[in-house]
Amino acid sequence: MICDPAFRHVVEAFREHVGGGGAALAVVARGEPVVDVWHGTRDEAGRVSWERDTAVNVFSVSKAVLATAAHVAVRDGLLDLDAPVRRYWPELGIDTTTADLLAHRSGLPAIREPLPPGSLHDWGAMTAALAAERPWWEPGTRHGYHAVTFGWLVGEVLRRATGREPRDLVADLGVQLGWRGPGEPAFVLPPEPAAAPPVVPPLIAVRAFTNPSDLVVPNAVNGAAWRAAQIPAANGHATARALALLLGRLGGLLGRTALAEATAPRSEGHDEVLGGGTRFAAGYSLPNELRPFAPNPRAFGHTGAGGALAFADPDLDVAVAFTPNRMVLTPSGPDPRWTAITDALYR
Fold it and tell me: pLDDT tens digits for 245-286?
């Protein structure tokens, strides 16, 4: 374990508030690891200890990793964010750019017609359905969270532009799409019963989060099909250490000017899918009304379903990643576990 004395209070907040199951916390400051700690258990029965290299499904934190792969492709001259997507993916039936895909502005957050079971795990089925879908709004004019479609949209552009599969691109960055081993990742534990009444979402959100229906199969994220598939918006598996190192060294990977451009706000305000206020850069989430993960509006990264978090603050030159396996349901607002961590970091 690593615990720089200057960050001891952050580690104490993590250990006090981590709750059931297990989790890991990593902090990188000025490009160097200053915290790398873990706690609890990683199996369903609560008997197997979390270890240094225990990875867990980090859900939408995966989007920040896929976005980084896109910016690496830009760096290498393989991708132009402002070019029409049709340059790379002629079958896509809308006029949009990769920049719009990354900023949740393409108008394809959901597929209207119900897809057959198994579609979630079928790359060709999902990209074909998206290529044929009509946009929910004129691309580029508004934004709405592309909760799961983000991965196939950006991933297919990358697959065509680079000639490599998305799982291989993100593996270069320390994250697995699905799970190929070694060993087993942490078991994603279900959330405790919700204390608050459920919120009835609009139709667009229902479609975004439930079509294909595989998305709502209980315990699917621990199954073989989920771990074998490429679902780049949702099935990234990573350690906290890998995520913090990636975001904490992003300036060196992309270059400072490119990093500033990649993390500048592109979408702000009312979200057509989530209904509240959100903010996005080119693939990275920025602190916002629904997920206020850092007090500095220039921070960038992503949150994940159930409580995963990875972000960097360029003003502090620090990156933080929190990877739990016990899900906590927070339809909006911060996860109480990482609130304690970020409060300690910024005090």
Answer: 999 999 999 999 999 999 999 999 999 999 999 999 999 999
Q: What distance in Å separates the CA atoms of residue 257 and residue 273, rounded to the nearest whole number?
A: 31
| Nearest-angstrom CA–CA distance, 270 and 339 | 24
What is the total count of domains within the chain? 1
State the greatest distance between any 2 C-alpha atoms of the chain, in Å, as a whole number.
55
Cβ distance 123 to 78 under 8 Å?
A: no
Q: Kindly compute the dihedral angle of the four CA atoms of residues 247, 252, 258, 261, in this order, to the nearest 10 degrees.
A: 30
Q: Which one, of 314, 305, 310, 334, lies nearest residue 262 by Cα?
A: 314
What are the residues whose beta carbons fall under 8 Å from the beta carbon of 260, sequence distance 6 or more? none
**Chain centroid, CA 35 distance in Å:** 21
Query: 264 to each of 259, 280, 297, how far by Cα in Å?
Result: 9, 8, 10
Secondary structure E strands in the chain: 2-3, 22-29, 32-40, 56-57, 176-177, 236-238, 267-270, 277-280, 300-303, 309-313, 318-324
Give CA–CA dist 291/301, Å, rounded: 11
Non-local (6+) Cβ contacts of 272 within 8 A are 109, 136, 137, 142, 143, 144, 204
The DSSP string of 273-314 is TTSSEEEE-SS-B---SS----SSTT-EEEE-TTS-EEEEET
Which residues belong to the active site?
Answer: 60
- CATH assignment at residue 290: 3.40.710.10
For the entire predicted model, the pTM comes to 0.96
Residues contacting 119, CB < 8 A, separation 6+: 125, 126, 129, 212, 214
- Host domain of residue 254: 2-346
CA angle 163–153–335, rounded 5-degree value = 120
Q: What are phi and psi of 311, to 5 degrees?
A: -155, 160
Give residue-wise pLDDT tens across range 49-71.
999 999 999 999 999 999 999 99
> How many Cβ atoms from other residues are within 10 Å of residue 190's Cβ?
14
